Amino acid sequence: MSFDILQDKILEKKNPTVAGLDARIEYVPEHIRKEAYAQYGEGLKGAAEAIYQFNVGLMDALCDIVPAVKPQSAYYENLGWQGMEMLERTIKYAKSKGLYVIADIKRGDIGSTATAYAEGWLSGASIEGKTYKSFDADCVTLNGYMGSDSINPFLEAAKAEDKTVFALVKTSNPSSNELQDVGVKVGGQVFGVMARLLERLGAGTEGKYGYTRIGAVTGATHPAELAEIRSMMPHTFLLVPGYGAQGGTAEDVKFAFHKGGKGAIVNSSRGIMCAWKKTGGDGHDYQEAARNAALAMRDDICQYTSFE
Amino acid sequence: MSFDILQDKILEKKNPTVAGLDARIEYVPEHIRKEAYAQYGEGLKGAAEAIYQFNVGLMDALCDIVPAVKPQSAYYENLGWQGMEMLERTIKYAKSKGLYVIADIKRGDIGSTATAYAEGWLSGASIEGKTYKSFDADCVTLNGYMGSDSINPFLEAAKAEDKTVFALVKTSNPSSNELQDVGVKVGGQVFGVMARLLERLGAGTEGKYGYTRIGAVTGATHPAELAEIRSMMPHTFLLVPGYGAQGGTAEDVKFAFHKGGKGAIVNSSRGIMCAWKKTGGDGHDYQEAARNAALAMRDDICQYTSFE
Questions:
Q1: Most Cβ neighbours (<10 Å): which of A65, A141, A214, B260?
Q2: Distance between CA A71 and CA A19 in Å, rounded?
Q3: Of B212, B263, B210, which Cα lies nearest the Cα of B239?
Q4: How far apart are CA A294 and CA A264, in angstroms?
Q5: What is the widest separation between alpha-carbon atoms in chain A?
Q6: Do A111 and A76 contact (CB within 8 A), yes or no?
Q7: Inter-chain contact A77–B116, Cβ cutoff 8 Å?
Q8: Which of B161, B1, B119, B139 is nearest to B69 (CA)?
């Protein structure tokens, strides 16, 4: 129920982190690129195949230590439909390895349009009365600027399939202040309005750990706001980007967790994917480098979070 | 330059409307569905092909009277990668017919992720130093909740290719008030903060008609806010959804236009696509029905807007 599936995987692996699968072709070691180009040509198809092989290698190296992966849709759409086809395969492979899949799509639309998205990403399209799944993630990220009309259709699809969503509250990027931090007359800031809305929409969908089906995205780069949001949203599971490359530290993200390492998951993308670029090798060691980076991240974050 | 291309097409056809290409399989007449299923099977591929044939038929019927089409990405993602492949073909066909293509994707992400999206949808992916285009729309819609970090990478891609973007300001759906209408301490409401941000980011990119490269989405269902936004954003081209099925009227949308029918385009999706369902026929007349609906919409809106 709800975020129980993800929380169980986190507790089992004693690791509250998620590995981003956000590969640009430049992140893929040369030997993988060369082989893919030789077979599929140097172009969109060849790049998609190279990234797929890289993703598979990363997941093979990480799946026994990391509970979840987060493919970022942008890097697949970057390659057009051939990237999207490869994303479907990536998600399927991740699930076959027992990884929880958070599709980072940040969609936001309304009514029948939101339903169309929710079907494509979570519950499957209906064609002449039969259901056909395609992207079939366990969880998606959403942008709720349009209000509850843009959240509820995803919540319905998530309920039907025992899946989950995360909606943006306070994002990790520098310009997140321009809208999200604006003070509102009712008190607090815009991100607080969003936080309260999400807690309200999720109410009644709590699982055994007490979290609703609607999680919140809250950046590690704003630790004060992270702590504020943790206390404003006691029933909400948090997805925390911004650790590592963007500047967030283990000390910053500790505010996201409830007792016993519960209620949050921290993302790292480039820190894991591109770890091989820092070993001095030619990329043949990318799996070992990613695994070492993932273990170091786990240990770093677990300094401040115990899993009792 | 900027929105000049779209504005020229509007003035040439004396029609400030855009036809949504948002087909669910249920909107496609039976004879087209049957033929596609016979050839490609009843499933994701068959549904994608049926919708493609429907889209082509609609564009053939509309391309001499309508300046632009707006495919909504949700209805293509609904069918997984096979829907996305069909979206690429739909966009290509639209451009071959001289239609301006607004890809309604409402993406919102930051930094290198926003760049990856912008490449996929506007400027093309870079692979080993060569550029490969895939979705290649003329314009995309964006969600700026994350601030300028989520707009600027698209603006850069749009500048490089003489393309454009629209970002959400005040949306047409009932729950848009939950966040967008919240009063802010600096005065006005959240949507006003977004409006000022977009005018600022677009400044300096005005074309011959005086509009920047960053347009704004403003729903027809809130005519008072539409008028307010028109005056707050004098250099911004407006995309106005919510006419017709959602309840917006020609009298409501008149506030979007500057003198001479400039500065705005009004969308209709179901009103045109599904017009055949109201003729009493079996769907063989879907092209005529769509054309008649598009002409009626044009005449309705032009009651209040002159193209001198």
A1: A214
A2: 8
A3: B263
A4: 17
A5: 61
A6: no
A7: yes
A8: B139
Q: Is residue A180 within 8 Å of A171, Cβ to Cβ?
A: yes
Distance CA A136, CA B64 (A): 40
Token code pair at residue A267: 């993302």
- A143: which DSSP letter? -
Query: What does the alpha-carbon distance between residue B69 and residue B273 come to, in Å, rounded to a whole number?
Result: 12
Cα–Cα distances (Å) from B70 to A240, B20, B249, in that order, read 34, 5, 20
Per-residue pLDDT tens over the stretch A257-269: 999 989 999 999 9
Instruction: Give residue B8's pLDDT.
Output: 97
ipTM: 0.98
At B103 the three-state DSSP class reads: strand
**Which residue does chain B place closest to A78, by CA atoms?**
B120
At B83, the pLDDT band (50, 70, 90 cuts) reads very high
Q: Which amino acid is at B256?
A: A
- What token pair was written down for A24? 């640009």
Distance, in Å, from the CA atom of A145 to the CA atom of B145, rounded to the nearest integer, reads: 6
CA of A146 vs chain B CAs: smallest distance (Å): 5
Min distance B12 CA to chain A CA atoms (Å) = 31
CB-based burial label for B129 (10 Å; 0-12, 13-18, 19+): exposed
Q: Rounded to the nearest 5°, which phi and psi values hold at A8?
A: -60, -45
Contact A199, A212 (CB under 8 A): yes
Amino acid at B83: G
State whether A134 and B168 contact (CB < 8 Å).
Answer: no
Burial of A272 (0-12, 13-18, 19+ CB in 10 A): buried
Which region among A241-255, B96-110, B124-138, B167-181 has the lowest average model confidence (pLDDT)?
Answer: A241-255
DSSP 3-state assignment of A291? helix
Cα–Cα distances (Å) from A170 to A173, A179, A223, in that order, read 9, 10, 11
CB B171 within 8 A of CB B143: no
Token digits of residue A257: 């967790």
Inter-chain touch A109–B72, beta carbons under 8 Å: yes
Q: Is there a contact between B143 and A84 if contact means CB atoms under 8 Å apart? A: no
Residue B182 with chain A: CB contacts under 8 Å: 184-186, 190, 193
Amino acid at B160: A
Look up B208 and say whether it is catalytic: no
DSSP B101: E
Tokens of B173: 């759906």
Q: Which two tokens stand for residue A206?
A: 């709590």
Residue B171: list chain A partners with CB under 8 A: 110, 145-146
* Residue A39's pLDDT band (cuts 50, 70, 90): very high
Taking 3-state DSSP, the helix, strand and coil percentages for chain B, each rounded to the nearest 5, stand at 50, 20, 35
Q: Under a CB-based contact definition with an 8 Å cutoff, are residues A262 and A15 in contact? A: no
Q: Which residues pair with A167 in a beta bridge?
A: A142, A216
For the question of whether the overall pTM of this predicted structure is more than 0.80, the answer is yes
**Token pair 């999706």 in the structure block, residue:** B269
Closest CA to B258 of B221, B230, B239, B232: B230
Q: What tokens does A17 get?
A: 């982190």
Token pair 């889209």: residue: B55
Q: Is residue B163 within 8 Å of A189, Cβ to Cβ?
A: no
